[in-house]
Design brief:
Two copies of one chain form a homodimer. Helix content of chain A is about 45%, strand content about 15%. The termini of chain A are close together. Chain A is globular. The first copy, chain A, has an eleven-stranded mixed β-sheet with strand order 3-2-1-4-11-10-5-6-9-7-8, sandwiched between helices. The N terminus and C terminus of chain A are likely disordered. With about 375 residues, chain A is an alpha/beta fold. The first copy, chain A, has two domains: about 160 residues, 3-Layer(aba) Sandwich (Isopropylmalate Dehydrogenase); about 150 residues, Isopropylmalate Dehydrogenase. Chains A, B: Its EC number is 2.3.1.274. Chains A, B: One of its GO terms (molecular function) is phosphate:acyl-[acyl carrier protein] acyltransferase activity. Chains A, B: Belongs to the PlsX family. Chains A, B: Pathway: Lipid metabolism; phospholipid metabolism. Chains A, B: Catalyzes the reversible formation of acyl-phosphate (acyl-PO(4)) from acyl-[acyl-carrier-protein] (acyl-ACP). This enzyme utilizes acyl-ACP as fatty acyl donor, but not acyl-CoA.
């Protein structure tokens, strides 16, 4: 568990080679980010010749890495073959070595999700009390704020205990990044009634209610798919399969709707004229739904903070991921996750740790 | 298994009391439906005094039922207490009794889903080779056609064999109602690669590939959430939990988007003026996304055809459910489901019937 003094500058390590576009996107994003955050410092990781433009920038250090994990590289290649990849070296900056503090407090990469999670997990290890790291992102909701959703695909078969862990980690994330200290938590289900859902979901509901009653989190109850966009709760917890389907279904529908709007406004000279007049309105509408604004998913449950940008992000979107990572580090997300897990382990040891039965009672005390 | 001569009129039994609005919605819908379908006949089920308006309509018979299953009635009430409910009597019309053919070929109700499925299952029983009935609906896609999705909440913990059964029943539905004889089938997953997903999903992928190779269905492979709206496949198969979340998430996003559009167009006198000019465009856009046009979910796997309307349907929406039910009956959906299941049982008995191992080999031969 590393910690740091919040009066100190926050240092981010950036995998500058990752994603579909590499330095042509990451460098302009880093430059804009630096200009907006005078307290931030960047470690730019990648091939020095590709990052030469940034050599003279203030508050920047170039960290050489000779290899690149491509968007198609299997996890094995990222883990075992490309040991000097920009992704791996960027994550490595989060590790304290030989008593020296870590070089960076948070890492950002647009590299492929599977590889990023695998390398991060291998290098950083999971936090005590966490069985599986999870991926959390935000979606816009009708209240004008965001709904944080996790897990988004890291875990396909979850136990009730995993879902409780997700709720604790997600609560810490919302508190750190959105500034809401006691975010409300919804359990994604197919009905609001407690008798709904699979056995796992019903058991997760019990664990969450108990944790809520113990003051460990703010449990609202079951929510349904539409509640994500209603903004019924700050946080929505689900297993990775369901979360991934919900996210991609939403992306698909949003794409279809914007295509349809374009088609309808482009259909005739008259509708084109209407589009011209409606342009400011349509622009504001587009801005509110612009998924680039919500870029930057958190990998939670590791002994280090890693944020994942969309692979296809442009410079604006990548900068948002840097912003979220910066806020998370500045607001001590790692300590917050740790504190919540420890508090819950101490209050209800058997409930948080799904593997306690296998590992014996020392698990809880190790974590504490 | 009942069958009928397709040159004969199709008779629908309609639960006129179900849904949020009862006869004030169902009767106008029935009237419009009758006018559009000269070959159709209706059995209007409910309290005779509430249906008096329809007493003189041609091709209509009023069937008395003294009770109504409300939208909040628990399944137990619908099953055990309200034995003369319009829902139950409407479904009863699908049963052949004492050698006489069934009074109706398909039943439509806007009553509550849980009660409808339970009563239908109790009265009709499942088809041979089907472990669990499923609910299928359509969503619009970018190609301008529909994607049929099942299951939507009837089944929360599915085996690979259940998913194969859903694929077979869904294929029959698309063939009957959309007129595409060999609809393409996608398995909803979190990636296109065959190694993605839970063990159940991977096993379901194998069963579907085998069934595809044997010519029993047209298996495309894995699809992701966004493929529902891309229209990558005619049919998307998933377990009821995932399908329910995908559907409700989509509804939530569509609601948020239309709210945002309204807000943006209502923001200032200038944007209101733009809205006025853009009105025909926005109307066409709204029409394309109008969920009322897609109303009418099929309950599949029962020994009788039941269609479920949204409880909140208006007369236009309820008429669409009648239309879908009519098309299904006219195009022999029940025989089609039966034929596909039998063909698959004969080709690969162990694969379709998830319980074959428990029940012994007689299951397949019983079904055949």
């Amino acid at each position: 568990m590393h910690s740091y003094d919040s009066s100190q500058p926050v240092r981010l390590s950036v995998d500058c080679m990752g994603g579909d576009h590499g330095p042509s996107v990451t460098l302009p994003a880093c430059r804009a980010f630096l200009a907006a955050h005078p307290q931030a410092e960047l470690l730019l990781v990648g091939r020095p010749e590709a990052l030469a433009d940034a050599a003279a920038w203030p508050r920047c250090t170039i960290v050489a890495a000779s290899e690149v994990v491509t968007m198609d590289d299997p996890v094995e290649v990222a883990l075992r073959r490309k040991k000097d990849s920009s992704m791996r070296v960027a994550i490595q900056q989060l590790k304290a070595t030989d008593g020296a503090p870590a070089a960076a407090q948070v890492c950002v990469s647009a590299g492929n999700t599977g590889a990023l999670m695998a390398v991060a997990r291998y290098l950083l290890k999971t936090l005590d009390g966490i069985d599986r790291p999870a991926i959390a992102t935000v979606m816009p909701n009708q209240t004008g704020r965001y709904t944080t959703v996790l897990d988004l695909g890291a875990n396909v078969d979850c136990t009730a205990e995993h879902l409780l862990q997700f709720a604790l980690m997600g609560s810490a994330l919302v508190a750190a990044v959105e500034g809401r200290e006691e975010p409300s938590v919804g359990l994604l289900n197919i009905g609001e009634e407690v008798i709904k859902g699979s056995e796992t979901i019903k058991r997760a509901g019990e664990l969450l209610r108990d944790a809520g009653a113990a003051g460990l989190l703010n449990f609202h109850g079951n929510v349904e798919g539409n509640d994500i966009f209603k903004g019924t709760t700050d946080l929505v917890v689900c297993d990775g399969f369901v979360g991934n389907v919900a996210l991609k279904t939403s992306e698909g529908l949003a794409t279809m709707i914007s295509t349809m709007l374009r088609e309808e406004f482009g259909r005739s000279p008259l509708s084109k004229a209407a589009a011209l007049l409606a342009l400011p309105v349509l622009k504001r509408f587009k801005h509110r739904l612009d998924h680039r604004r919500f870029n930057g998913a958190a990998l939670l449950g590791l002994r280090g903070l890693v944020f994942k940008s969309h692979g296809s992000a442009d410079a604006f979107a990548f900068e948002q991921a840097l912003n979220r990572a910066y806020d998370a580090a500045r607001n001590r997300l790692l300590d917050r996750v740790h504190d919540r897990i420890i508090a819950t382990l101490q209050a209800t040891p058997a409930q948080v740790d799904g593997d306690a039965g296998d590992k014996g009672p020392q698990t809880a005390s190790q974590a504490a």
